[in-house]
């Protein structure tokens, strides 16, 4: 005979409604109770009837997750953490990639709206007005963007930028190039504002170069401007831009950090392997926090707010004191 929800309730010593909440809104159940219910369900071989649940609750158990570029190593740790965290509440995550295209982002959201209970928008490029308009069709949580009246998970890149410039100051750098990213990027706006304020505070000369594509090609293409600026150190929009610049500089016969110091943003696995000094962005923690906020928004009347996660500078081998008299080739 098939195992029923009543069997699980009896085995775990809870009411049937508690078992139901465990598999439809796990964040509303005490963690110890939830663990007991899940253990009983696993031991009995119980699997929730998703179709029946959808009919009774008008929820699919599916969530959407939209990212700007799935090939960017910033996104996979966030995606994996969000998927694993969602599964603990018996939810499944559908992932979509916009390839940095605003129109594709809007189309994906509209097509997903009828198929999911809610969606995570990670570093969206849409305007705040359009995000607000689309949120009427499907509940949103936004990561690394803060539209008005929508729950958000933010990674404090401004703090990381301040740490990066303080590190460069401590090494003796006075001329810093900032390689900016896409204009519509919230991260870029925060990074640029914080770097500008920190440069003014420390009396540095900041050369803003961009916008640049958030790719290795964008970093490589920025190399002539960096060299022409006379900067001795670079803070790049992300690790891909930093690594593209680093490769181009070395291809031109320049040493990093001997001739130029380079700092990225994200602390991706590639940055770790290449010895890049970078700002660590807590992507996995952001994925888990975003799922928690989204489930609250879907299942509860209280409106979740904003979660801000700390960042930190990770110093590796791509930064050093400036070379005496370096003026570029």
Automatic annotation (TrEMBL):
Boundaries of every HTH lacI-type domain copy: 3-57
Protein keywords: DNA-binding, Transcription, Transcription regulation
Top-level taxon in the UniProt lineage: Bacteria
InterPro entries in the cross-refs: HTH_LacI, LacI/GalR-like_sensor, Lambda_DNA-bd_dom_sf, Peripla_BP_I
Pfam families registered for this protein in UniProt: LacI, Peripla_BP_3
Statement: the UniProt record of this protein carries the keyword Transcription regulation: yes
MF-aspect GO terms: DNA-binding transcription factor activity; transcription cis-regulatory region binding
PANTHER family linked: HTH-TYPE TRANSCRIPTIONAL REGULATOR GALS, LACI-RELATED TRANSCRIPTIONAL REPRESSOR
Protein name as catalogued: LacI family transcriptional regulator
Organism: Nocardiopsis sinuspersici
């Amino acid at each position: 005979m098939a195992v029923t929800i009543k069997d699980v309730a009896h085995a775990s010593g809870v009411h049937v409604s508690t078992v139901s909440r465990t598999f439809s809104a796990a964040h509303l159940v005490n963690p110890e109770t939830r663990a007991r219910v899940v253990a009983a369900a696993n031991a009995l071989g119980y699997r929730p009837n998703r179709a029946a649940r959808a009919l009774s609750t008008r929820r699919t158990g599916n969530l959407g997750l939209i990212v700007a570029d799935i090939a960017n190593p910033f996104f996979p740790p966030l995606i994996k953490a969000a998927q694993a965290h969602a599964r603990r509440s018996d939810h499944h995550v559908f992932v979509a990639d916009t390839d940095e295209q605003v129109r594709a982002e809007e189309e994906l959201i509209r097509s997903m709206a009828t198929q999911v209970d809610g969606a995570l928008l990670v570093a969206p490029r849409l305007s705040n007005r359009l995000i607000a308009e689309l949120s009427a069709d499907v509940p949103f949580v936004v990561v690394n963007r803060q539209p008005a009246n929508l729950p958000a998970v933010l990674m404090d890149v401004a703090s990381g930028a301040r740490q990066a410039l303080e590190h460069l100051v401590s090494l003796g750098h006075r001329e810093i190039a900032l390689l900016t990213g896409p204009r519509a990027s919230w991260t870029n706006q925060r990074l640029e504002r914080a770097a500008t304020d920190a440069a003014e505070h420390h009396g540095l000369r900041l050369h803003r170069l961009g916008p640049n594509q958030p790719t290795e090609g964008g970093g490589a293409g920025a190399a002539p401007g960096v060299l022409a600026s006379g900067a001795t150190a670079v803070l790049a929009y992300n690790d891909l831009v930093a690594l593209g610049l680093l490769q181009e500089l070395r291809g031109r016969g320049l040493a990093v950090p001997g001739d130029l110091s380079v700092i990225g943003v994200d602390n991706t696995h590639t940055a770790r392997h290449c010895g890049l000094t970078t700002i660590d962005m807590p992507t996995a923690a952001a994925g888990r926090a975003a799922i928690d906020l989204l489930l609250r928004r879907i299942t509860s009347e209280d409106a979740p707010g904003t979660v801000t996660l700390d960042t930190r500078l990770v110093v590796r081998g791509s930064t050093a004191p400036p070379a005496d008299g370096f003026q570029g080739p």
